[in-house]
Amino acid sequence: MPLLHFSKLTLLLAFLVSGCVAADIHNDTKDATDKTPYVSLLNEPQSNAYFHYARARMLIAENDREGAVAAYRNAIDYDPDDEGLRFELAEIYMAVEQPKEAIRVLEDVLLRNPDSFKANTSLANAYFGNQQPDKAIPYFRRALELNPEKEQIRLHLAIALVRVGDVDLASEELKNLLKRYPESRSGRMAMARLYRETGLNQLAVEQYRHLILHNPDLDQAYLELGLLYEELKEWQNALEVFKDVLKQRPLDFTLRHHLARVYVGMERYDDALEELNIIVDLKPEDFDARRKIGLIFLEQERWADAISAFKELLNLKPELDPARYYLGTAYEGLLDWEAALEAFLGIDRDSALYDDAISHIGYIYLETGRVSEAIKLLHARMVEGKPRPQVYNYLTSLYMADGQNESALNTIENGVELYPDNIELLYQRVLILEQTGRHEGAMQAAKDLLEVDDEHAETLNFLAYALAVDNRELDKALAYAERAIKIKPAPHILDTLGWVYYRLGRLIEALKIIEEASLQLSEDSVIFEHLGEIHLALKNLDQARTAFEKALQLQPDNLDLRGKLEKLADSQ
Q1: Which of 76, 85, 128, 348 is the most exposed place for a label (fewest CB within 10 A)?
Q2: pTM for this one?
Q3: Which of 188, 181, 130 is nearest to 160 (CA)?
Q4: Nearest-CA neighbor of 518 among 505, 535, 539, 506?
Q5: What is the arithmetic mean of pLDDT over 112-117?
Q6: What digits encode the pLDDT tens for the residues 231-289?
Q7: How many helices (H) and strands (E) does the chain have?
Q8: Contact (CB, 8 A) for 296 and 264
Q9: What is the predicted pLDDT for the residue at 422?
Q10: Is the pLDDT at 15 greater than 60, yes or no?
Q11: How far apart are CA 425 and CA 449, in angstroms?
Q12: Burial class of 421 by CB neighbour count within 10 A (0 to 12, 13 to 18, 19+)
C-alpha cells in the first residue's frame, strides 16, 4: 500500500511498537538533535491512517472482517485521498456479502476520479456480483473506453448483456473481441456458449471445432461440444468427441460416465456397461457408476443381474435409499413380492423416496390380495402430513379397485386441491368422474386440465371420444382428435379419430383409420365393434359380422354385441 515512503514507514512502526524507541534514536543522533528541534510524528494523519490500516490487516488475518471494516473506515477518515484504502474496503465488503456497501465505496472513488479504470471495472464487477448486470454494463463500457485492449472486460460486458437479454449486442461485443484477438480462447468459448444458449447449435459447433483445432489441449471445449451433440441426440458425433478426449485421458472417469450415457442413448447397453465396469474396477467407490450399471440391467429387464448389482451397492453403502428402492423394483420384475416388500419397507420415513416406496408397497399389497392393508397404509400416510401426488393417485386407484367410489373421488379432489397443476392428478380426476357416472363433470374437468396443459394428448382424446359417443359438437370433436393424434400417434387415439369420422359420415376415412388401429390393438374389443359398425354402414355385411364376432370373442359377456350379431343374422 503506497501510503508512506519506506524509511518513514519504518520510523512510524518503531514509534508504534515501543515508547522508548524514540529516546534511543535521539541518543544515537545527539549532535543532530542538538541542532534540530524534535517533532513528534505520532499525530500526523498519515501515521494514524497507517495505524488503522495495519490494524485492519491484522484483523483480517484473525478472520474478524467486521472489525477490519471498522478499521478501514478509520484509516480512510485520516487519509480520505488514498484510493487503495477504498478499493481494499470494497473487497472486504464483497467478502462479507455486503455488495451495496462495496458499491457505495467504489462510487465515492469514481466521484473523486471519474477516469479511474480500476474504479469503473471494480464497480462493474460489484454490480454484476450483486445480480445487477443492467447497472454493471455502463461501467464495463466506460472501462473499455479507458482501455479498449482489455479482453476480459469486453468478455464480461458480453456476459452482462446476455444476462439482461440483449443477445444481439452481446454477440456484437464478442465478435469485436474476436476481431481484435482471433485466438482468444475465453472469447471464442463465450461465443460458442452464447450460440448454444440461443439455439444456434450449428454456429456453436463451428466455434467449438475452431477451439479444438487451434487448442487441442482444451478439454473443456471437447466436453461442451460432446454435451451439445448429446443434447441434440447426435449420438455418433458425441461418441467420437468423447472418445477423442479419452485417448489422451484414459483415467478420466467423468469422460467415461459421459461415454456410458451416450451409449445408453444409442441403446448400446453392453458398451455402456463396459465403460461403467472399467470405472468400478479402477474406482470401486464410484457409487454412481454402480447405480447406473443396475439401472441398465433394469432397462434390459435383467432382473437377477439388477438385484445382484444393487445388493452389492447396498453392502458398500447401506444407507443408500435409491439402491434399496431400485432393488425393490427389480424384485417386482421377478414377481418376488415378499423380497420387494422387504426392500421397500427398508426405506426410512425421512427419505425423499418414502412416498414412492409407499406407493410400491400399496401395489404389492394389491397384487397379493391385501387391498384393505394397502388402503390403510396409504391413508395413514395421508394423516402424517403432506404426501406427494403419487400417494393420492395410487390411493384413489385402490379405492376404485375396492369399489369405494366416493372415497376415491374425495381423495382425488383433495389431491387436486393440494397440487392444482399436477397433470396426473388432474387427468385421474377426469377418469374417476367419468367412471362414477358424472359425465358432464368429467367433461368440465378435462377442459380445466387443458387450461393447465393444452397439449395433453390423452385429455384431448377423452374429449374427442366423449363428444363422438354423444354424437354432438362433432367439429369440436374432430379438432380435439386431430390435435391429439398429432401429439401422440397412438392406436387408441387413431380409433377415436376414426369414430369421429364415422359420426361425421366420412365412412371410407373412418374405415381406413380404424382398420389401421385394429392391427395395432388386436386384443381390443371396442375397436372391432367400431369396425363392425362402419362395415355395417357401408353395407359390407360379411365384414361387419366378422368384426362383431372378433369383438365378442374378446368380450364374451357383451350382450349388446350378441344382439347386433343376431340382428345381422336375421337381416340376411
Answers
A1: 348
A2: 0.59
A3: 130
A4: 535
A5: 86
A6: 889 999 999 988 888 887 888 888 899 999 999 999 999 999 999 999 999 999 999 99
A7: 34, 0
A8: yes
A9: 95
A10: no
A11: 10
A12: exposed
SS3 41: coil
Please give the single-letter amino acid code of residue 283. Answer: K
Question: Which helix (DSSP H) or strand (DSSP E) does residue 143 occupy?
Answer: helix 133-146
- Length of the chain (residues): 572
Instruction: Indicate the burial class of 441 (C-beta count within 10 angstroms; 0-12, 13-18, 19 or more).
Output: middle
Do the beta carbons of residue 196 and residue 186 sit within 8 Å?
A: no
- pLDDT tens, position by position, 392-424: 998 999 999 889 999 999 999 999 999 999 999
Environment class of 557 (CB within 10 Å of its CB; exposed 0-12, middle 13-18, buried 19+) = exposed
Predicted pLDDT of residue 44: 57
pLDDT tens figures, 127-180: 888 888 888 888 888 888 888 877 778 777 877 887 778 778 877 877 877 777
Mean pLDDT of 315-334: 94
At residue 3 the predicted structure's pLDDT band, cuts being 50, 70 and 90, is: very low
Q: Residue 412: which residues within 8 A CB-CB, separation 6 or more?
A: 392, 393, 396, 425, 428, 429, 432
Among candidate residues 292, 349, 303, the one with its CA nearest the CA of residue 329 = 303
Chain centroid to CA 513: how far? 39
CB 75 within 8 A of CB 56: yes
Whether residue 124 contacts residue 139, with contact meaning beta carbons closer than 8 Å, is answered with yes
How many C-beta atoms lie closer than 10 Å to residue 70's C-beta?
15
Buried b / exposed e across 322-339, counting CB within 10 Å, b at 16+? bbbbbbbbbbbbeebbeb
Three-class DSSP labels, 149-202:
CCHHHHHHHHHHHHHCCCHHHHHHHHHHHHHHCCCCHHHHHHHHHHHHHCCCHH
Look at residue 283 in the predicted model and tell me its pLDDT.
92
* The three cell numbers locating residue 217: 489441449
Query: Residue 515: pLDDT band by 50, 70, 90 thresholds?
Result: very high
Who contacts 507 (Cβ-Cβ below 8 Å, separation ≥6)?
501, 534, 537, 538
CA angle, 308 then 309 then 311, to 5°: 65
Nearest-angstrom CA–CA distance, 125 and 108: 16
**Kindly report the CA angle at 138 between 134 and 143, in degrees rounded to 5?**
135
Determine the residue type at 176.
Answer: N
The percentage of residues in the chain with a pLDDT greater than 70, rounded to a whole number, is: 92
Q: Quick one: which of 241, 245, 221, 217 has its CA closest to 229? A: 241
Residue 143 confidence (pLDDT):
84
Contacts of 262 (CB under 8 A, 6+ apart): 226, 230, 235, 238, 239, 242
C-alpha to C-alpha distance for 112 and 109, rounded to whole angstroms: 5
Cα gap 562→59, rounded to integer Å: 94
| DSSP character string of 500-513 | HHHHHT-HHHHHHH
Could you count the other beta carbons within 10 Å of the beta carbon of residue 399? 23
Cell triple for 19: 515508547
Q: Going along 214-356, which residue ranges are E strands?
A: none
